[in-house]
Predict the structure.
Amino acid sequence: MFAIRMHRKSLGPTILGVLTLASLGPLLLWDASPTLFPARAHDVLAATPLTLVAVAYLVYQITRRANARDFAKALLSAVAFIFWALNQLLPNHPRATLFNDIAITAFVLDIVLLMVGSPGAGLNESDRALPDPDPKRLAQARTRG
């Protein structure tokens, strides 16, 4: 039998992750048979996994004791998901467009920060190559350069 060993601190994020995945079932069932659900059920069904994944990700970062930079990035992602959820939950709210625009801004900012903040960002593969370990070739390269 296959057993999964979990630390106590990973239990919370794991449970939230499973609940998040489970919340996708009713959403996809609504897509297959919307008449099974009450009016406006889709709004709640769409907002639920977005909210749960935001909370799960923050709890995960807290339990793994993420550094301030990683937690700030996780918080930015969570904000994006929460505002997306608000837009789904309250599509007729006077601020629905603002909720959507905040979500878009947070997602775009998150990805741009990921691209420019990654180690080696903007470098070609040859720029990242390790120096030649052969001392003769290394000395020759130094005299040429």
